[in-house]
């Protein structure tokens, strides 16, 4: 419960209509894409950076917890008020596309702008914003920056951090800072934008984002490589990329996901006897470029045992190929009532071994573990399927399996998260990935920005 | 002077041969590419990370200043012991190329490895490390990371930060940390690698660097665009890039630099009546690609008033075109006895106006201000030429001109430094570029890593 005098002061900043404490609002802002639910004490919708500054300054002085929130589409509870406090929602007012600067090829946006709205706007003027997380239709760019979101096109074009040119942000004490300029290069002062990216809203509230744009690729085709086994598909991933293939995306579906898709979408056309599938686009400035890329892929896939290589004849057919990938996540639910899904990431050369071992861990506990995801950048969504979520033993085994998978991944030189972040869901596993020295440094960095620990506190295992 | 008991302890760590206090060594390690000279109290050559950890732990406990140093080729005094202390030289032992991982397309190096040695080694196996600072023949990769070095190829391929995949580092308290993995994506924990890049050796001693490699481009040609004026050349820079040109490099020489080159190298073949020149390479996976790129450039340059567009017929001729750019810096010395050179960076669209105003500032004080540099990324080397460095009035005017130029650049949304860093040379200008809130944040970050302020202290205006 928040003190009435605090509420009154905050109301004086944002006006009555932009602060809510009624049950409906508290429930509407208690969730994200995890199953966890935490009701905030209030929800505030600031209208501009100045209001955010005033709110933070006040909450810092009175040690009131503030949790910044975009669309609430995160997978790890990063935007949940797990320790109470006020939700600072950026989606109602701070959602504008401020500028498309064609001359410098950057866009300036507010944090609450939806990713896809930016993509569409810049493509209309011949430019391109590559990061395309699966949540692109509803996730916000502020959230994308705070989690360093990836996406399908990361194999060729990189991830959110590769496009952040500059940020404006408000520190917990209310100070407004600028990190970076509309310049390609800037080495004056510490790279504060660098540390704000992926900081999960724990260091500052991002109020403005300048993003690099590139020319829109002219030509694109969709391919699908069919492999007899997961191992051969995973080997083809790193060998084809190391031999010079440069696809926009190289997405993976394993045999279980293919089975689930066929069961859930009987009309789907997917190859028989496929042990693993790689699907993606290639693009280029000419059709010859595109076809050359397809040739490199086809040859390299062939050398690594592919049994078929399909190229979509047109965009419509391309969409059909992509349908399988886009529906992989919901399809896996045919295997259980609860999915423990993690987005591990390993050096690409470790993919074959990693998948082999992950399936073995599943077998040991009796779980089916359908896997799919961004193989081109070593980032796989691993889904431990629990048949009966009310079976305590099974749930507990599921969590044991997940912990073993994390340990395996870290031992292979991989990471707990390729794109979802740590939040609260993965916080218990931080000690697998980081030493006490590293955790200490994280705590010191947190303290440097937020000495009173008011901004999204106790996340990331801190 | 360093206490004998400290020396004895440090000697016990690195052994006699790896610690020096004789005058010859103190002089040999007192300089960089600035004209400033500061003798250290001792020079230590650690043999491995463990020794670095022990040294830092001890110096932290005894509040002894440590200044990490690569090749000492910096332009802003970042590696100078301007407040005394011990030079920690990484060039004698910590200079190995540890691994070229072909499967994951990364190289693992020690900080003292020379940039060009890496470039050569990876090109031998068909890979490519793009960042190529002008100092590539002698600067170290540790220094490149600490300054976030740019280079000629940044227009297409980006700068050092775009290639740092992971770092190992020792904190001032002796803790060894790992920041990042050999994975493309990693969003677990704060992005400590992000803040170490460009931190000028003030936060930690980098002990190992994992760098992204890309396939070596197959074909390359060199072009030169000739313009009647600086303004038309600068306009062509941002307009051609915004219209889809994607050259490897787009380097600029102004009329004064051209004049200086002709005077210093009478045999040089440079176009008459050129007010500005743009020179660079284009590359691609086929000759058709390369020629298409050249066409885009030629057309776009033409639309912006170019009077000639020259394409080198072969590599030899390409080298001749590059000769002018590579010798721009020494050539400018025909205009004076002292050069006050700064590497300002502005949003590319501001280049024409920025150069116009810079020349006006030069005129006001009676200086010739030859300019050249990485126009493709908005980063220009501005040289205020002092005729008589012993003339106090002239020197003082020179510094006033520099300060006005910095103010101009910051007002235009630019930055004090595109690639040289702040060090001690630009520290007096930090208040032009940063607010007190931003400086406070920098100080807090510094404290989070280095509470005793022993690591390269008082640099960057901190």
Instruction: Tell me the number of helical segments of chain A per DSSP (H or I, 4 or more residues long).
Output: 16
Percent helix of chain A: 25-40%
- What is the average of the pLDDT values of chain A? 96
> What overall geometry of chain A do the principal axes of the alpha carbons give?
globular
- Oligomeric status: homodimer
Strand adjacency order, main sheet of chain A? 15-12-14-13-17-18-16
Give the largest chain-chain interface (CB within 8 Å).
Answer: A-B, 83 and 83 residues
Count up the domains of chain A: 3
Question: How would a crystallographer describe the biggest sheet of chain A?
Answer: 7 strands, antiparallel
CATH architecture of the largest domain in chain A: 2-Layer Sandwich
Backbone CA Rg of chain A: 23 Å
Number of E-type strands of chain A: 18
Poorly predicted regions of chain A are none
Strand content of chain A is 15-25%
Distance between the ends of chain A: 24 Å
Secondary-structure-derived class of chain A: alpha+beta
The CATH topology of the largest domain in chain A comes to Uridine Diphospho-n-acetylenolpyruvylglucosamine Reductase, domain 3
CATH level-1 class of the largest domain in chain A: Alpha Beta
Family (chains A, B): Belongs to the FAD-binding oxidoreductase/transferase type 4 family.
Keywords (chains A, B): FAD, Flavoprotein, Oxidoreductase
Cofactor (chains A, B): FAD
GO molecular function, one term (chains A, B): FAD binding
